[in-house]
Amino acid sequence: MPEPLYLEDLFVDQRFRAGPIEVTIEEIKAFASKFDPQPFHLDEAAATSSLFGALVASGWHTASLTMRLLTQCATFSGGLIGVGGKIEWLRPVRPGDLLSVEATIRRITASKSHDDRGMVAIRVVTSNQLGERVQLLDANVMAFRRSNPT
Description:
Elements: E1 15-22, H1 25-35, H2 39-42, H3 44-48, H4 59-73, E2 81-89, E3 98-110, E4 117-127, E5 133-144
Antiparallel strand pairs: 1-3, 2-5, 3-4, 4-5
């Protein structure tokens, strides 16, 4: 596991990359059956008559896989603690897709009320094996200073 990153280690335009991770039919169905039970996530035959024309992963599944990949490359001390953001699903994720992430720090702001931390604005692009963007996440995450005992 990489060394934890502290606020002092971060800079604007810094990039983090991880992946690929394969999306399987079994995982699509398992995730959907628990968290997003819609026919186009659960049943190949029903999915053919949907907007997507075939089985696709839930957007929330894509977001979860994005988070998994982020924890591999953006190893912030104390964890990736989100404090807001915006997510866009740009194209469907299909069985067999290989997802990768590239996260770029866009802004770093020291906290005015807590000396031990700051806020980091990060843009996370999740792409498939063809380089097509499937998800865009603009998130604000907390980053601790090295002096913090976390």
